Amino acid sequence: MKVDVIKLDGGKAGSVDLDEALFGLEPRADILHRVVRWQRNNAQAGTHKVKTRSETSYSTKKIYRQKGTGGARHGDRNAPIFRKGGIYKGPTPRSHGHDLPKKFRKLGLRHALSAKAAEGSLVVIDSVALDAPKTSALAKQIKELGWKRALIIDGAEVDANFAQAARNIEGIDVLPTIGANVYDILKRDTLVITKAGVEALEARLK
């Protein structure tokens, strides 16, 4: 599929042929959902913790005698039945991550790219290299281009001046090709890829 290429100042820079296997698929929500769940579960800290009856700070002394009180029999105050006692079967630190085959992850990334292309939210830019890291000048250019919530994917490495200028602009994320992922692509309204990024993505996902 042929897509127009623009410059950072909004001018035209020819066109580029995008691989149909990456940008021309029919997006499937079930595949995207599985990959996003895998990403978010792996990112979850899993540090939630409650105290069990062996960790609460009450005495372990039996609170009253076993028989003759007319009440239920109890041991110590750490039992889960009492206020501020230990919690029974509460959450403990654990990993929420699960495995997902590498082929399926690549497939998910292809469908994410295709989803952006299908909805007309994909922009191919010639280059994002800047002479100097000027945030105000870059913010003005981005406003003129109409990018409010955009993910910009560069080649193997992001231009240092551009990365520095863009990091304080609200709604703009910048990633190298190796960092491209389904969650970040779907989270933003506009996906911007440099020509070097397109070549690197095609090499990565073939």
List SSEs in N-to-C order: EEHHHEHEHEHEH
Please, what is the average pLDDT?
A: 93
Write down the overall geometry: elongated
- For the termini, the CA-CA separation is 17 Å
CATH arch. level architecture of the largest domain? 3-Layer(aba) Sandwich
Question: What's the CATH class of the largest domain, please?
Answer: Alpha Beta
Describe the structure.
This protein has seven helices and six strands, in the order ββαααβαβαβαβα. It has a six-stranded mixed sheet with strand order 2-1-3-6-4-5. It is α/β, with parallel strands linked by helices and 206 residues long. The protein has two domains: 2-45 and 99-205, Ribosomal protein L4/L1 (Ribosomal Protein L4, Chain: A); 50-90, no CATH class. Helix 2 (29-43) crosses helix 3 (102-118). It starts with a strand and ends with a helix. It has helices at 20-23, 29-43, 102-118, 135-145, 160-166, 182-187, 195-205; strands at residues 2-6, 12-17, 122-125, 150-153, 172-175, 190-194. The longest helix has 17 residues, at 102-118. The chain is 34% helix and 14% strand.
List the helices and strands and how they pair.
Blueprint: E1 2-6, E2 12-17, H1 20-23, H2 29-43, H3 102-118, E3 122-125, H4 135-145, E4 150-153, H5 160-166, E5 172-175, H6 182-187, E6 190-194, H7 195-205
Parallel strand pairs: 1-3, 3-6, 4-5, 4-6
Antiparallel strand pairs: 1-2
